[in-house]
């Protein structure tokens, strides 16, 4: 039995796609990410997005493609219904032109509930949250939102570049959150502010 095969009970959708798309090691990766300490842990939704990107990449690679990360994100978001209808139609058309079975690929994408079922019922994983202090909880929440904004911005820019609406070579989206103190006029990156315990101005 491989590390990604069911360890008990019936198989799950996630176990099936891991085997079907030959995503070796993904099961252990998901378990480690879900049971990691709070500051490093990834949510079930983030893990589902990760699985779906792996599925899309594998499907495109089967056809001899070498997809870029931005394209993988765009296709995954479009098939999950997280883009506008025009982008979704464009993505489906391009996939069909490449000979990809779009309906099958769409059906193979997983939900966060499916990931949870796989981790708990197949791998027997359990997450026991540590009691986090309010500052760390705020830090984790901001980091999560910043990561999602970065992914959405990158996906949309890649989509515009692919359609010829804008001209852009390889790029990297940076998301910063700055906090300005009205009392002393100083400005901090929010991570720095949290590390300092506040502005501490006189």
TrEMBL record:
It holds the Pfam family RdfA. It comes from the Archaea. InterPro entries: RdfA. This is Uncharacterized protein.
